[in-house]
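Allow me, if you will, to draw on your knowledge of protein folds for a short while. A protein sequence and the structure tokens that stand for its backbone fold form the material at issue. I would ask you to consider whether the tokens describe a fold that such a sequence might reasonably adopt. Thank you for your consideration; the sequence and its tokens are set out here:
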Amino acid sequence: MKYSDILVTGSAGFIGFHLCKYLLENFEDIKVVGVDNLNNYYNPILKKKRNEILKSYNNYEFIKLDFSNWDELLESLKDKEIDLIVHLGAQAGVRYSLKNPWVYVKSNDLGTLNIFEFARRFDINKVVYASSSSVYGGNKKIPFSEDDRVDKPISLYAATKRANELMAHTYHHLYGIKMIGLRFFTVYGEYGRPDMAFWKFTKNILLGKPIDVYNYGKMMRDFTYISDVVDGIMSAIKKDFEYEIFNLGNDNPVKLEYAISLIEKYSGKKAIKNYLPMQPGDVEKTWADLTKSRKLLDYNPKVSIEDGLKRFVYWFKENFDWVKDI
């Protein structure tokens, strides 16, 4: 590893936590500076638990800040000797963007602009940043390829993530900063997000409560296990690209009903299903074309939906005393 001081935004978030933990466990000579505003989009207890785990490592420094506030960002980080930024912090969630659009532009667009501008002003020559499969919008061509047009987003969340990609291209073109964008496809796993389907399904099935199944169960998703995503991020960190965008998915979309059946199997309980129509901003099917990622990133997802959901449900059951309240 040629980097010594890595800034990870969204370090108390799901993907940020797992990336930081991997770096801290495998590279003792690297200092990880994690920033997060610990907001209450979902129960902050979960973010605090993740953060406490990271703070147990000697080579981790946590700074609570809102990176959409330029003055706060500058004051908190100006004296740090950062040589790589992994920008994972963002306001997540498609459906929430219908209710509170302003926070998405503030966090995802203004916040990302601040991170890119910080990299420019402090001569940090590489940024790996999070994008999303949502940028593919309502594209009918399956699987989704990085070469596909992505100019018709169907949610504000998707629009903000596409804007991030365009800003990254601008900062690369103008200032020569190496920019690597990663389009994540429905990431799941231990310490995941409680606003996502697998957490909500597992929690309610174990509690004997109904689960909401959208599009009458006809959804298909390219669910991607967290360790595979971390592998992809690490490859983007280690490899030397000037400007690229990569899909990080599983290349194996599965029906939502099948995923629910696996949760039932591993939890030992049957789901009470409440079938509902498609929700605004949702897409019926996602599928990552990994041709480019396999060739250039050496990315090869290893965890099947069966194995990944087994790990997640077993973790959920082992930690049920506190996860049930989140």
About this structure: The mean pLDDT is 96. Residues 125 and 177 are 5 Å apart (CA to CA). The domain at 5-323 is CATH 3.40.50.720 (Rossmann fold). The radius of gyration is 19 Å.
